[in-house]
Amino acid sequence: MNTPTRLERTVPGMSCQGCVKRMREAIQAEDAAAEVVGTLAEHRLDVTTSLDDATLDRVLADAGYPAQSSSGPADSDDGAPAPRERTVPAMSCQGCVKRMREAIQAEDATAEVSGTPADHRLEVISSLDDAELDRVLADAGYPAETSSIEPAPAVQSKTEPDAEPEAAPTATAEPPDDDGATTQRLSITGMTCAGCVKSVQQALERTPGVESATVNLGNHTAQVRGRADTQALIDAVDAVGYGAEPILDLRQAEQVRAERDAEEYRRRMRGSALSLALAVPLMISMFVFHPQPLGAGRWYWLAVGLLTLAVMAGPGRHFFRNAWKNLRHHQANMDTLIAMGTGTAWLYSMAVVAFAGALPEMARGLYFEASAMVIGLVLLGNALELKAKGRTSDALRRLLDLQSRTARVIRDGREQEIEIDEVREGDRLRVRPGERLPVDGEVIEGESHLDESMLTGEPAPVAKAAGDEVSAGTVNGQGGLVYRATRVGADTRLGRITEQVARAQASRPPIGRLADTISGIFVPSVIIIAVLTALIWFNVGAEPRVLHMLVTASTVLIIACPCALGLATPISTMIGVGKAAEHGVLVRSGEALQTASRLTTLVVDKTGTLTEGKPRLTEAEVLAGDEREALGWVAALERGSEHPLAAALLAHAEAQNAEAADIQDFTSVTGGGVRARTTDGRTLLLGNARLLEEAGIDLGAGKERVEALEGQARTVVQLAVDGRLVALFGVSDPLRADARAAVARLRDEGLALVMLTGDNAHTARAIADEVGIDEVRAGLLPEDKHAEIERRQANGETVGMVGDGINDAPALARADVGFAIGQGTDVAIESAGITLMRDSLHGVADAIAISRATLTNIKQNLVGAFGYNVLGIPIAAGALYPLTGSLLSPVIAGAAMSASSITVVGNASRLRWFRPQGADAPDEASPSGKQESSA
């Protein structure tokens, strides 16, 4: 066997101890005796192994962590491998790096490729020249932005405040995920009903490269996921008779949509007024002056017929134009039904005028006023519907309005006001009292309080001083601040929140598939029903058969328009997602919104969820040896960790002026603690009881004291040196002030609450008893939480998981709905179905209450839309004629059809005034800062 040697690698993709663990497992699968230690700050991996260099590099690459040898970069002679660096905006994960590596190695098999997704940085050692490398990346779907011939350092320094790096480009689509797909958003024109939605969606889904498509009638947008080219999507929509254009900027798109809707509202109101100006006097005259279409009366009705034709060709022309367009594309929608109904009535009436003398008297019915009245009423209904829909995206509009248009930047020692798009990362910005912050950043100078309620729902201003992070869209208080820009444009917290709200509002809950399924066959079915109705009346109906046939067929076509069906789901979803955002709850998709409404079990983590997540050391007892020496070991062991408990221990050691000892062979044990060796060979262990017991250490010396501390809800960390327990530390993580009330709200909602925690059983039980949770499982690793959720799901429970979005990622992903709590961190926003922008379980209760209210509203809309057609079509077909002796007028049918759509929109709008009962957030908790009244 080869003698173990110490090898060092720089691993750009290493970002946490989880990465180190995965690399350790991969290496030890080849060499069980290997020792692997990672230094995250320097992306350095130290390996003591019998593997040779090539085998080690292969193992790391196979594990997804390609390494750079410590021997330095290769020579850069012509034709020899040379180091290059690229900025790749579309790179978002190690999956992207893998695909780029495969593409590059297809051209240069010896190329070394590594990437840092967080910085969008790709490092390549290859014999390809710059042009070839850029071509390969572009062909792989990852065009590079910048290049450099210089080798990239292992650790990049932070941008200085006065630096002006290049700004990240504004994204027109969501960055590719692990499978390379992107999400594009299109604005769709010409849609009027559920049939239109189905046609557009099918056209998009049939486009090569499209994985899924969602079309929203409420805001006339489409969301398309896949690798299809934008122009191909536009062409697909055009091919079925509708218009499409890409949405490049949400604010501009919302403004254009609002202007377009306002113009359309005015046009339809004008058209309605003109149509009704003819129809209403004509209907009134029917009771006063109604000549027969013979002799001089024929000229009167001919004039009326021509005026009606003018209404149909003027205000109503889009019904006929769209119907013809759909006919050419073998489609049918609401416009088809309206055009057929009114057109048939007009043609029949003109035939009566032309051939009245040849027709029996009972067949001389005229329906010019019906055609004009139906067009007028439908246009009026459309206008009122547009007006009502205009307020459904208020939450998104308010979020967009939070974005400042200018910023005051300090460059070259002087202040200047510039457009927001010109701000770069690293710029220094000044914000005066009362001003809104334009971008995210870190405070450099000054102290103030910021109103963050528009983002988090928290009403109390938050104190900010040097070193604190600040967010775009928040409002400065009385103090002045100077801060350094860290994220700009769409990358700001506000930008990402806005993008997520827009995506969620355009998504569709699974319940919407019912409407989709029916709408696909609805319009053709209605046409068939109208034809059958006409045939039945013509063959077995009462006299005048031809007249009754005309009335019933036209009325069926008009009353069955599926506008309400197409609006039932998207309108409620848009308002529900917006309402959740007003309460500091970000819903990722319509599916998450629906699933949250039927949860039976809620699993909660302890640290950072029920507790504040900011532990502080309350007890420190040294059982053997010197206290300062013990604290020196603690400082050395914890200084490289980001765990909250480590921060508490390190803060105590620093407060005691303890000097960190020199250690080596540091190893982090997931769910246990850390281990290392001193320079003189002593073994150090710092962590929980399980870690020390597995190492064979006798914990009897501190058993009584540990039990006492755990009974006081303390988390106990123990230090052992050379197999001997030398110190105990009690760490307290205070319970959140609102945790007890929030748990009570959740229990009142009918949820079974379960605490899953990695802490010890005594501490977990004490916290659970204090907040009112009955079921507790303690001492769990992340994979144990995942397994517990799987077990409950197998037993038929619908499980939600509340965690911090990082340590609990496996459980959050496994749960039916994951709730990430913790100020909306990047990881939380991307990993959870629902993200809470404030650190409170009340947000979970708010999310569930809003979800249930939204789903109830959708069901009401669907029942109303379906019920309207189920009842209306038989009545229109003449089902009540044997009882009443009369038929439903097409005019009444037109009015009822418009009323159904307005009713659905009006019912959905009730959600705008919904307020979750028991919410602790005050009234001023919305992006606009306006008061809300409970409903």
List the uncertain runs. Answer: 69-78, 146-178, 920-935
Largest sheet: 7 strands, mixed
Report the principal-axis shape. Answer: elongated
Average pLDDT for all residues: 77
The proportion of strand residues reads 15-25%
Give the helix proportion (percent range): 40-55%
Number of strands: 34
Could you list some keywords that capture this structure?
7-stranded mixed beta sheet, disordered C terminus, 935 residues, 6-stranded antiparallel beta sheet, 19% strand, 30 helices, alpha+beta
Structure description:
The protein has 935 residues and is of the alpha+beta class. 45% of the residues lie in helices and 19% in strands. It is built from 30 helices and 34 strands. Strands 22-34-33-32-23-30-31 form a seven-stranded mixed sheet, with helices on both faces. A hairpin with a 3-residue loop joins strand 25 (663-669) and strand 26. Helix 15 (512-540) packs antiparallel against helix 16 (545-559) and helix 22 (703-711) runs parallel beside helix 24. The relative contact order is 0.08. The model is unreliable at 69-78, 146-178 and 920-935 (pLDDT under 50).
Reconstruct the topology from this structure.
Elements: E1 5-10, H1 17-30, E2 35-39, E3 44-49, H2 53-62, E4 68-69, E5 82-87, H3 94-107, E6 112-116, E7 121-126, H4 130-139, E8 146-148, E9 182-189, H5 194-205, E10 210-216, E11 221-226, H6 230-239, E12 243-246, H7 250-285, H8 296-313, H9 317-328, H10 334-355, H11 368-389, H12 394-401, E13 406-411, E14 414-419, E15 428-431, E16 440-445, E17 448-451, H13 453-456, E18 462-464, E19 469-470, E20 475-476, E21 481-487, H14 493-506, H15 512-540, H16 545-559, H17 563-582, E22 585-587, H18 590-596, E23 601-604, E24 616-622, H19 627-638, H20 644-655, E25 663-669, E26 673-678, E27 683-687, H21 689-694, H22 703-711, E28 715-721, E29 724-732, H23 739-748, E30 752-756, H24 761-771, E31 775-777, H25 782-794, E32 799-803, H26 809-814, E33 817-821, H27 826-831, E34 834-836, H28 842-876, H29 881-884, H30 890-909
Parallel strand pairs: 23-30, 23-32, 30-31, 32-33, 33-34
Antiparallel strand pairs: 1-3, 1-4, 2-3, 5-7, 5-8, 6-7, 9-11, 9-12, 10-11, 13-14, 13-15, 15-21, 16-19, 16-21, 17-18, 17-20, 22-34, 24-29, 25-26, 26-27, 27-28, 28-29
Helix pairs in contact: 5-15, 7-11, 8-10, 8-11, 9-10, 10-11, 10-16, 11-30, 14-17, 15-16, 15-17, 16-28, 16-30, 17-28, 17-30, 18-28, 19-20, 22-24, 28-30
